[in-house]
Amino acid sequence: MTLGRVFICPRCKVASNSGCIGSSSEPNLDIFGNHAVRCPSASGGPRTEFWHDPLVLMWERLARFAGYKVGHEARNLVLSAPGLRADFFIPEINMIVDLRTAVTCDKQLCVKAATAPGAAAEAGIADKESKWKAHVDAQGDVFLAIVHEDGGRLSDTAKDLLHRFARHFGISPTDQSMFMSYGLQRLHAISQKGVARLSRALRPVPSGAAHIPSPSLRFGAPIRRPAGSALARMGPPLSSQPLWKTAAISRLSTRPVVVQPLAVPPAAPSPALVAAVALLENVAA
Ligand SMILES: [Zn+2]
Fold first, then answer.
1. Taking CA atoms, which of 11, 147, 197, 224 is between 20 and 30 Å from 258?
2. 238 in any annotated domain
3. Is residue 224 in some structural domain?
């Protein structure tokens, strides 16, 4: 990965030559985003900005779409712990919801998460509930922790909440099914986009003098296509395609297809040939 150079994480400054995670063969720092999602210094920074916050906004949007009123990051909801600030609150059902993003390759969870699907989500729920549940239960409200794993998996609590939204959205199975499809697709897309943006934001940088960005650091993400421009035509140019294919494309296309003849560059005589001709002319003279 490093091509003989040392790379460091721009947030926590861990270096690529700092060994592996625990006793595994996984390096502490990699370029594929494994470190980016579990970087201890990204929490509260890019991890929140790119991954957590867009998910919270999407959940709030889904709640409103289902017909609920939503309070965003309301303060002083918990009487016995005013410092706790939930991601959102649904007054109609007295539900305080806090969202967590969980990493399956976390040092403490990796072995369990590799064999038990949802282990990271369950650990995230346990962590949130230990902080919130007793306080919220004591005042008669409902606390719900919802978790998104980095691979896209939703916690059971999140699926239950989405089903609840769907039932509130419509009575008919068709309405509910439509809501579930929409919600699951939107949440998954936003979660995966967040993980990708986080990985790009925390890509390792060379520790010494180097040309940045290095090709070895690129993740192969395509450059964004300018809005409104046409997609590039794939395959060989029309001029090198057989006539029958060009005719078929021009018949199906809404735009006129202009076939340009292949341009043949003028042949330039080689220096050796020029010298040989000059020699022959000299001999003839
Ligand atoms: Zn880091």
1. 224
2. no
3. no
Tell me, in angstroms, the distance from the centre of ligand 1 to residue 75's CA: 31
- Kindly report, residue by residue over 130-166, the tens digit of the pLDDT: 988 899 999 889 999 999 999 999 999 999 999 999 9
In whole angstroms, how far apart are CA 21 and each of 5, 17, 35, 115? Answer: 20, 12, 10, 18
Q: How many domains does the chain have?
A: 1
pLDDT of residue 256: 58
Residue 239, pLDDT above cutoff 70? no
Distance 19 CA to ligand 1 centre (A): 14
